[in-house]
Amino acid sequence: MATDIPKVEDLLKKACVSYEERFGTKPEVVGCAPGRVNLIGEHTDYNEGFVFPMALPQVTLVVGRKVAGDVCRVVTLAEVNETGEVEFNVPAPETPLQPGSPKWANYVKGVVANFKGEKVAFNAVIITSVPIGGGVSSSASIEVATYTFLEGITGTFGQVDKKDKALACQKAEHEFPGMPCGIMDQFISVMGEKDNALLIDCRSIESRLVAMKDPNVVVLVTNSNVKHELTGTEYPTRRRQCELTAKMINKKSLREANEDDLKGMSSYQGHGQNCRDDYEVSCPELDQLVKAALEVDGVYGSRMTGGGFGGCTVTLVKKSEVEKVMEHVQKSYTGKATFYVCAAAEGARLISI
User: Fold this and answer.
1) Catalytic annotation on 45?
2) Structural domains present in the chain
3) Could you tell me what percent of the chain has a pLDDT over 70?
């Protein structure tokens, strides 16, 4: 019942064929970066708290090459409700890049504008297996894959500190799509390692790997298939509310708040009381998926993952019971869920063609 995750080599083959058809030559460089699932700690990164994500086997590839001139041409193979092609000039101090339409291209343009190396013209095709609008960081995977691609075509891969690379991609999302995201998504997409989750202190920006190697435990990601677009939801409002609350109690961030500070405010009780009732970032579909998963023996925990307002849940479950969980959840869910059995994967990298 679980959906097969497309193999990277199959994505690459499709992207290369598309590139040759569109640009009449072969690509030379492939930047690859994963989506992520957060095991715990939603909406805590911009409050300088802790998060615990892992990189997913679903990835975005940016396939292409450096070209002469001053025009960048990019094609996306993802299903979008606007044109799938865009052209823009290489940015210069007197002619900086600006956000605009199509919206998907803002994630690319923002990274180009914030790339720390030489600004060059390129042609590229983007392909992804990360569910778009699924709450598993499709946007960060595009940003980090684009940055990695730019490192590849300029011969600078690995020369920029990984933290600086992640921060540049976060800045790109702030400035161009206009999404005030925290640091988690870009960090795990850059720094993820196979068979490990990453515990990140979002104040110090320090992190440590935590092994995820128990063969008897499965990470089940369930897509509600309710699309979300965080730039158009309550996410920015929630961030402003948290910042205002911290200011009201004379704290730099809610990271510093204790029980006495928060008396009369919301308590934090997992998915149900926290994400659904107090923070109001869930939705009926996510609530159904969580409730159904928790009804099955062998489930250690289940919750929404990502920014909310749709997207996915993450469930930790005994491997022997995962089929039973998927069957029960699908029977209980009023929509059509998609299931992915995922292992912790590696982060950003260049792939040889």
Assistant:
1) no
2) 8-213+344-350 (3.30.230.10), 217-342 (3.30.70.890)
3) 84
